[in-house]
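User: C-alpha cells in, sequence out, please.
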C-alpha cells in the first residue's frame, strides 16, 4: 500500500507503527508510546467557523450540484394554452394542444396543460364539448383575468 494518497495524519501514524515494528517489541513499544503522546499533544487543524462540533465538511464534492430547474413564469402555460385554443375556434382535442402549441412556438408539457385547462375553464375563458376544447364566446369575458393566481 502506498502512502502518497493518504492524508498527512494517517501517513504519520503509519510511519510510527512501521518504525516501532522495525525496532522490536520492547524498544518499539517505548518509541510508539512516546510518539503517540507527542502526536496527541499537537493541535489538529482548526475547524471552519460554520462547522458543527466534531464535523469537518468533505474536502471536495465528487460531482457539481444539480442545476436549478428552468420553469416558466407563473401563468405562462395558461396563456399559451389559451392562445392555442383561441387559434382553433372549431375546437381542439386535448392531445392536439401540445403539438399545436409547439408549432406556434410554445413549449407546453402535458402535466402543465392538464393543470391549465381546468383553471381556464373555471375562469370562463374556455369550455369543453364532446371531448374538444373551445374558446368561450369571443375569448375571455370583459375584465376576466388570463389566469387565476
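Assistant: Sequence out:
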Amino acid at each position: 500500500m502506498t502512502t502518497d494518497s493518504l492524508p498527512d495524519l494517517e501517513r504519520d501514524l503509519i510511519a510510527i507503527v512501521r518504525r516501532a515494528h522495525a525496532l522490536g517489541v520492547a524498544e518499539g513499544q517505548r518509541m510508539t508510546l512516546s510518539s503517540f503522546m507527542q502526536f496527541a499533544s499537537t493541535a489538529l487543524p482548526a475547524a471552519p467557523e460554520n462547522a458543527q462540533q466534531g464535523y469537518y465538511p468533505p474536502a471536495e464534492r465528487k460531482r457539481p450540484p444539480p442545476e436549478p430547474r428552468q420553469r416558466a413564469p407563473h401563468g405562462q402555460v395558461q396563456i399559451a394554452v389559451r392562445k392555442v385554443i383561441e387559434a382553433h375556434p372549431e375546437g381542439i382535442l386535448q392531445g392536439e394542444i401540445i403539438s399545436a402549441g409547439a408549432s406556434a412556438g410554445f413549449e407546453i408539457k402535458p402535466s402543465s396543460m392538464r393543470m391549465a385547462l381546468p383553471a381556464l375553464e373555471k375562469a370562463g375563458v374556455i369550455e369543453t364539448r364532446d371531448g374538444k376544447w373551445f374558446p368561450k364566446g369571443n375569448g375571455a369575458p370583459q375584465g376576466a383575468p388570463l389566469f387565476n393566481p
